[in-house]
Design brief:
Elements (H helix, E strand, L loop, with lengths): L3 E7 L5 H14 L4 E5 L5 H11 L8 H25 L3 E5 L2 H11 L4 H12 L6 E6 L2 H10 L13 H17 L4 E5 L4 H20 L1
Length: 212
C-alpha cells in the first residue's frame, strides 16, 4: 500500500471534524487524491450500524454489544472505503478509528484496553493508521463549544457525565504515551486557525519523513 491512512481523534467538541474538512480542502487544492470519512459510518452498511449505536433511545445498550457494533462498522468501512483508496495511493482522512474504541469502550466504559484491542485486531486484521492526530482539550472547554453549536446533532454519548469525559481525555493521553510515534497530540484549546496550521505541519512533517 503506497497511500496514507491518517486518523483524527479526540473528545467531544475538540474541533477535529472541522479541522479534518479543512485539511481535506487544502490537500484537494494541492491536487492530492484525498477522501474524508468517519467512524462509525463511512459506508452504507456502516452508517446503518451507526444509527443503531447512536440512537438516543437505545439506553439499555450493553457495553460489549456497543464495542462489537463499533468493530463491525469499522470492518465494513475499512474494507469498502479505506483500503481501496489507500491501495490506489490516495490519502484517507478518517474521523475516529480503533483508538476511539480503546478509549470509550476500553477505558471509559471499563471493558479494558487489551480486550477491546483484541476484538479490533480481529476486525482490522492488524491494520493501524500511519499517523494519528489527537486533538487535546479539557472537557469543560469542549462541551462548552458543543453547547454553542446548537445545530449539531445531540447524541446518546453527549449525555454522559463530565467524569466520563475526563476519563476519555486521560485515556487518550495514556494511549499517546504508549504509542508516541504514531499518535501526535495537537493542542485543540487554541483558535481553529492555529489548530489547522499545526495539524498541517504535523502531516507534512510525517510525509517528508516517509519519503526520505
Ligand atoms: P459523533 O457524533 O461522530 O461524535 P464526534 O463528532 O465527537 O466524533 O459520534 C461518535 C461518537 O461515538 C463519539 O461520542 C465517540 C463514540 N465512539 C465510540 O465510543 N467508540 C468508537 O469506536 C467510535 C468510532 C466512536
Amino acid at each position: 500500500m503506497s497511500g496514507l491512512f491518517i486518523t483524527f481523534e479526540g473528545g467531544e467538541g475538540a474541533g477535529k471534524t472541522t479541522v479534518l474538512q479543512q485539511v481535506k480542502e487544502k490537500f484537494e487544492q494541492d491536487g492530492m487524491q484525498v477522501i474524508a470519512t468517519r467512524e462509525p459510518g463511512g459506508s452504507v452498511i456502516a452508517e446503518k450500524v451507526r444509527d443503531v449505536i447512536l440512537d438516543p433511545l437505545h439506553t439499555e445498550m450493553d457495553a460489549r454489544t456497543e464495542a462489537l457494533l463499533y468493530a463491525a462498522a469499522r470492518r465494513q468501512h475499512l474494507v469498502e472505503t479505506v483500503i481501496p483508496h489507500v491501495k490506489k495511493g490516495g490519502i484517507v482522512l478518517c474521523d475516529r478509528f480503533v483508538d476511539s474504541s480503546l478509549v470509550y469502550q476500553g477505558v471509559a466504559r471499563g471493558i479494558g484496553i487489551d480486550e477491546v484491542l483484541q476484538l479490533n485486531l480481529f476486525a482490522t486484521e492488524g491494520m493501524m493508521p500511519d499517523l494519528t492526530l489527537y486533538f487535546d482539550v479539557k472537557p469543560e472547554v469542549g462541551l462548552a463549544r458543543i453547547a454553542e453549536h446548537k445545530g449539531r446533532e445531540f447524541n446518546r454519548l453527549d449525555q454522559e457525565s463530565i467524569a466520563f469525559h475526563h476519563k476519555v481525555r486521560k485515556a487518550y493521553l495514556h494511549l499517546q504515551e504508549r504509542e508516541p510515534k504514531r499518535i501526535h497530540t495537537i493542542d485543540a484549546s487554541e483558535q481553529i486557525g492555529d489548530v489547522l496550521t499545526k495539524s498541517l505541519q504535523e502531516i507534512q512533517a510525517f510525509m517528508e519523513k516517509k519519503t526520505t
